Amino acid sequence: MRILRTLLTAVAAVAVIGAPVAQAEFPEKPMNFIVAFNPGGETDVTARLQQPYYEKVAGQPLVIQYKPGAGGAQAWAGLNELPGDGYTMVGTNLPHIILQPMEKDVGYETADITNVYMFHYTPDAVLVPQDSPFQTLADLVAYAKSTPGAVTLSGSGTNTANHLAQRRFSEMAGITTTYVPFGGTGPSVTAVLGNQVSGAMGYSTVGVAQEGQLRMLAVATDQRLPRFPDVPTFKELGYDLVSGAYRGIAVPKSTSEEVRHQVSDIIGRINADPDFIQQMEDGGFVVIDVPYDEVPAFMAAKQSEYGELADAMGIRKR
Amino acid sequence: MLDFLAQALTPFNLTLALVGVVLGTVIGALPGLSATMAVAVLVPFTFAMDPASGLIALGAIYTGAIYGGAFAAILVNTPGTPSAIATTFDGYPMARRGDGSLAVTLATLSSVTGGLVGAVFLLLLAPPLAKVALAFGPPEYFWLAVFGLTLISALSTGNMLKGLIGACFGLLLSMVGVAVVGGDIRFTLESQTLLGGINVIAALIGLYCIPVLIDLVATPDPHLKVAAGAGGFRLAEAARLAWRSKVNLLRSSVIGTLVGILPGAGGSIAALVSYSEARRSSKRPERFGQGEPDGIMATESANNATVGGGFIPTLVLGIPGTPPDAVILGALLVQGIRTGPTLFVQQGSIVYTFIFGLLIATVLMLPTGLVLGRYAYQSIVSIPKAVLVPTVAFMTVIGSYAIQNSPSDVVIMWALGVMGWGLNRFGFSPSPIVLGLILGQIAEQGFVQAYLIGNATGNVAGMYFGRPISLAILALALLTLFYPWLSDRWRRRRRGTPDD
Fold first, then answer.
1. In chain A, which ranges are E strands?
2. Which of A76, A101, B139, B380 could share a disulfide with B450, CB 3.0–4.6 Å?
3. Tens digit of pLDDT for each residue in B39-76?
4. B448, closest residue in chain A (CA to CA)
5. How many domains does the structure of chain B reveal?
6. H-run or E-run covering B166
């Protein structure tokens, strides 16, 4: 009798525990997000902004981890060795994952990275100090035309989004400017604030953080930023420049097609949340929606765009 | 103002400050677990709090971690955080001769003093002081790094040549990987693992800790001598020493605050600069490096002063003064708080409550530090070598892995450690190597940026030699370089006869 009761209890217990497992929807445990950079950077900040929405949209918390090194390459080279169960995601950045493998053997190829969503970008922007004589982009271009090379623009690192934008803008405007690379956005902005350089080829997020100290002359978006209705786009001024640092979310290659779609859906739903959009726009980010099915076309377009630049700048070495 | 003090004194905020300081001290004491990491781990918890409380928790853990770095520096000759490098110079010799508890207590008193001075500057003078950060351009960073390198001549007395060779080796190590400025790939031996360069913390653990471990195994001596009857905190003795060196403490704290304001300089440079100043103005400079209490007081007050100093550009300019500040800035952004010059006016209640919280956390460091320090000291001296060595060896692996979750850092740490042990045998100390590694990157970036700007404006020479702050730093560097020789001459002239 006792044995029977024990058995029954066990069966009941299994039924109770087992039932939700059988019907459970992905995800059923916390999801991990690996940031390929140091904490405190923009990739970290945007992941932190997303964090509470995972709980809201997917019902599971997001755990953020850091694996910095070699400009992100360390994390991306290890991506495909991670378990492909959909619970491990790595943040990816453009142009990094396209330019790095072009330049040298970094342990991964662009095609090795399975992006399931590209969810926003930080547009490039030209910023000058508040007391700068350059009131408009036209002032800067005119000065650069009269004294080639004398306009110094600080930016974050060499062969980065800022560097590419400086190069393309100078070419489009037919001017020569001097790019001064710094070890990150922080020091690059310090140099502008301290009048060490004429201006920065920085990001719109800098315009938010330094509002009142720095003046944004132009921003590399399709439409004006809602946060800065008075700042013109490069397009309006006649330069076809829409660029910045794009951020996506990738999963290991071994992740099944079904799970890839599920992860993509979760990020898509977060991206559609009005509160999230508001927070991103307040910070100077531009939310974009490139779900899993559209990623290949998006990446192909970017690869040819960056490829041409890489050839022109001598970045491509392999 | 008193309202804000009262807000900082709520039981919840007090608990946060206390827990933060204790956690921070423990994390800082473990080599490899850095202040940045401690702050990053805590960030998500602060989202549930109001902004001021969250900031207090983060500030407390940060200041505790910087202080905790001294424990490992004093007791096992391994800086727990890079800012404690210079604490090993006199801390470890003191511990070896049996004054470990005195050294820990001195470090506590100095850290509290430095932390308070830095926080008071933050409270009273933040907006004007933030201008210092802006006055420092690429040439100033270049000369500051050169100034730091001249400290090698002061630190390697008796064997300048070996010091310089070590520094050159360190400079070479600093160039490994992808250059920030220029993007060139250097000295990677075609390997992907070296693309990211040599991690400073992995190098610290290897160069300082591994030789100590090997020597512990190779010799029968006990790790630290325990002086008879020298147990306890030795608080009265330490307080007397600190009072006698109040000028040194204050000067080092001010240096620490000022260096902390400079984004990209950091606690290690602050500690080194104040160490060399303390040595220069000391009546017995020859005792520095052999267990001189003034050395510990200089470095520990300076590195904790960088906490308050580093918050100045973070809060006023929105530019992180130190890596942990970058994480805190990110947390503020997520909380929807806009940093900038208007922050102190518009959101004064958050800022001032936080600064008072930081002051309280710094004061709390005194009791918690004394208790934790005593515990750390006692466990290190009472643990038999057969247990201590494997435990510390295990920690070196965990610590270097944890920096970037990367096994290659562990390999680099071991390789540099074995190399450091070999070099030690031939009289090369690890400090010049580490200095070269840290300062090489700052010097190189500053030099190239200054050259690019100078070239663009057609005034390369003026970039390096035409700016007042640059010239002042250059003068200090020259003074440090030739000081031993100059003071020798002065002394001889005064005595009228050659010494030897």
1. 31-35, 62-66, 88-94, 114-129, 152-156, 178-182, 199-203, 214-219, 244-251, 286-291
2. B139
3. 888 888 888 888 899 999 999 999 999 999 899 899 88
4. A180
5. 1
6. helix B160-174
Distance CA A120, CA B53 (A): 31
Closest alpha carbon to B297 in B327, B328, B265, B255: B255
CATH number (domain holding residue A293): 3.40.190.150
pLDDT of residue B29: 87
What mean pLDDT comes out for the span A166-191? 92
Q: Among A34, A65, A190, which would you mutate to test the B interface (most chain B Cβ atoms within 10 Å of its Cβ)?
A: A190
Q: A145 and A184: one domain?
A: yes
- Number of domains observed in the structure of chain A: 2
Assembly ipTM: 0.84
Tokens matching residue B226: 């325990």
At A218 the three-state DSSP class reads strand
Question: What is the average pLDDT score of chain B?
Answer: 87
Residue type, B169: F
User: For the segment B350-408, what is each residue's pLDDT rounded down to a tens digit?
Assistant: 899 999 999 999 999 999 999 998 888 888 888 888 888 898 888 889 888 887 888 88
Query: Which pLDDT belongs to residue B220?
Result: 81
Structural domain contains residue A14: no
Is B54 part of a structural domain of the chain? yes
Which among B326, B328, B453 has the least Cβ separation from residue A180?
Answer: B453
| Residue of higher predicted confidence among B42 and A204 | A204
Token pair 């525990």 is at which residue? A17
Give mean pLDDT, residues B255-267.
86
> B466 or B79, which is more confident?
B466
Residues A195 and A61 in one domain: no
Find where tokens 């090369």 sit. Answer: B428
Q: What is the pLDDT of residue B282?
A: 87
Say yes or no to pLDDT of B230 above 60.
no
- Closest Cα in chain A to B199: A69
pLDDT at A136 over 80: yes
Please tell me whether residues A130 and A210 are part of one structural domain. yes
The answer to whether residue B11 is domain-embedded is yes
Please check whether residues A49 and A113 belong to one and the same domain: yes
Is B405 within 8 Å of A66 when comparing Cβ atoms? yes
pLDDT per residue over B393-450, tens digit each?
888 898 888 878 888 899 999 999 999 999 989 888 888 898 899 889 889 999 999 9
DSSP code per residue over B167-236 = HHHHHHHHT-EE-TTT--EES-TT-STTTT---HHHHHIIIIIHHHHHHHHH--S-SS---TT--S--HH
To the nearest 10 degrees (0 to 180), the angle between helices B246-261 and B235-244 is 80
B352: closest CA of chain A, how far (Å): 20
Instruction: Give the type of residue at B293.
Output: P
pLDDT class of A20 with cuts at 50, 70, 90:
very low
Of the candidates B39, B183, B456, the beta carbon closest to that of A159 is on B183
What CATH number corresponds to the domain at position A175?
Answer: 3.40.190.10
State the Cα–Cα distance between residues B218 and B389, nearest whole angstrom: 11
Supply the DSSP string of A148-206, one letter for each residue. TT--EEEEESSSSHHHHHHHHHHHHHT---EEEEESSHHHHHHHHHTTSSSEEEEEHHH
Q: Check whether B228 has a pLDDT greater than 70.
A: no
- Give whole-number Cα distances, B254 to B115, B116, B117, in Å: 10, 11, 7
Chain B residues within 8 A of A150 when measuring between CB atoms: 456-458
**CA B208, CA A102: separation in Å to the nearest integer?**
38
Amino acid at A292: Y
Residue A226 maps to a domain: no
CB contact under 8 A, A178 and B452: yes
Domain residues for the domain of A70 are 31-121+246-313
Phi, psi of A281 (to 5 degrees): -65, -40
Q: Is A288 inside a domain boundary?
A: yes
Q: Is residue A225 part of a domain?
A: no
In a domain, B499, yes or no: no
